[in-house]
Predict the 3D structure of the following.
Amino acid sequence: MTLKFDGKTIPGTSGPLQMGSPIGRVARATFAGVNGEAEIALGGAGRDIAIEHVLHDEYKSAKRVWAYLKKLDEWAVWRTIGTLKIDGDVPITEKECVFVGYQSIALPGQSRPGMLEDHAGTLDGGWFITLLLQWRQLIVKK
């Protein structure tokens, strides 16, 4: 499964997409002399999107993995907005996604999350790290 964001391929292997339905923005208020509460629709909506991803690309050192993580940091700091595409059995394209960031994930048997070297050659023989990549999709009614 190929994962692309803002036209750029994120190297590695992706797990399933995790997302819920969009949540609209509303303000709730109570007014004197009125029973119950009022709900004011503010327009627009959004949803969180997350993908578990093993970042690997024949990285010959942990330093190279770290360099790619710094690129992801730039996307998060600058709140990069783009199209998220996943090519797989069910191709998915989600527009207006803001890259929020990532969290490293410990694999089963790993005492804490972090980079590992693929000694067995299961992935590509280089260094890798497992991440939870996170986006916020902005949905605007047109």
Summary: The first strand starts at residue 2 and ends at 5. DSSP finds one helix and nine strands in the chain. Strands lie at 2-5, 8-10, 13-19, 23-29, 38-59, 81-87, 92-104, 116-117, 127-139.
